[in-house]
Specification:
3 strands, 86 residues, mainly beta, single chain
Length: 86
């Protein structure tokens, strides 16, 4: 074909992962660590590539899927952990 390079681009991908960590000293040589992690913090939907097959005109240029981030799903995922260090 005569299409140029990167002629079919999909929508932009945006994902923000964040974590917070706080360490509390209990005594000398022992501590407790609390951690909060968030994947896809703003719960942004990331769409897949548009259909590029000219043989199926009904789906040409139509976006019909999403791209999963944290563990296969595109939804926000948050987890917490508590760790005792000695």
């Amino acid at each position: 074909g005569s299409s140029g390079r990167n002629a079919f681009r999909g929508p932009r991908f945006f994902n923000l992962d964040a974590s917070l960590l706080k360490r509390f000293r209990v005594r000398e040589g022992t501590a407790v660590t609390f951690r909060v992690e968030a994947y896809n913090l703003f719960n942004t939907v990331n769409f897949g590539q548009p259909g590029t097959s000219i043989l199926t005109p009904a789906s040409f240029g139509r976006i019909s899927s999403t791209i999963g981030t944290a563990g296969g799903s595109g939804a926000r995922l948050m987890q917490m952990a508590l760790r005792f260090e000695f």
